[in-house]
């Protein structure tokens, strides 16, 4: 089974549900990875953009809705990581991750892309409206 939330976030959700503790708020940032960010995947932000800062995505995802019996959200605006990738030689992104900081910070969630994204120098790296879909499916 794929892991969506980091262990820290899973703990936060359980503490919120069963103990009434507050879940941390703040800005959220998107990064692309080659490999699972929960299991040592490689972040591609610097090699794609030439800078370490991740894309801030506050308010860019829709209010969750029920689809097929499960809660789901997706990006409700286009997300452009870069208009022209630099320093890449056919990088492959297989996951996206959400962090609580533009650099370093804590991994909040990681999710596999439906298909690998091959990135070459000069290519735009962006996701059209509704292209990044996250579903909370029953793990049973």
Main traits of this protein?
140 residues; mainly beta; five-stranded antiparallel β-sheet; 10 strands; 13% helix
SSE order and pairing:
Elements: H1 7-19, E1 29-34, E2 42-43, H2 45-49, E3 55-56, E4 65-67, E5 70-74, E6 79-82, E7 91-99, E8 107-119, E9 125-127, E10 133-136
Antiparallel strand pairs: 1-2, 1-3, 1-7, 4-5, 5-10, 6-9, 7-8
Task: Please outline what is shown here.
The chain has 140 residues and is mostly beta strands. Helix content is 13%, strand content 36%.
Beta content: 35-45%
Biggest beta sheet attributes: 5 strands, antiparallel
Tally the helices: what do you get? 2
What level of helicity do the residues show?
Answer: 10-25%
Query: From the alpha-carbon coordinates, what is the Rg to the nearest angstrom?
Result: 15 Å
Number of strands: 10
Supply the number of structural domains.
1
Distance separating the two termini: 10 Å
* SSE pattern: HEEHEEEEEEEE
Oligomeric composition of the shown chains: single chain
Outline the low-pLDDT stretches. none
Q: How would you explain this protein's 3D organization?
A:
The chain is mainly beta and 140 residues long. It has one domain (7-11, 27-136). The protein has 2 helices and 10 strands; from the N terminus they run H-E-E-H-E-E-E-E-E-E-E-E. The strands form 3 sheets. Strands 1, 2, 3, 7 and 8 form a 5-stranded antiparallel beta sheet that branches. The model has no long low-confidence stretch (mean pLDDT 90).
């Amino acid at each position: 089974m794929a892991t969506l939330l980091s262990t820290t976030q899973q703990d936060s959700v359980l503490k919120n549900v069963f103990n009434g503790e507050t879940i941390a708020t703040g800005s959220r940032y998107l990064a692309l990875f080659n490999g699972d960010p929960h299991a040592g995947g490689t972040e591609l932000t610097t090699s794609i953009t030439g800078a370490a800062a991740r894309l801030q995505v506050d308010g860019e995802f829709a209010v969750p809705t029920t689809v097929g019996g499960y809660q789901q959200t997706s990006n409700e605006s286009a997300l452009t990581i870069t208009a022209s990738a630099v320093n890449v030689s056919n990088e492959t992104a297989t996951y996206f991750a959400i962090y609580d900081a533009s650099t370093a910070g804590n991994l909040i969630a990681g999710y596999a892309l439906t298909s690998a994204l091959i990135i070459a120098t000069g290519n735009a790296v962006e996701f059209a409206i509704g292209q990044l879909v996250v579903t909370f499916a029953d793990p049973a």
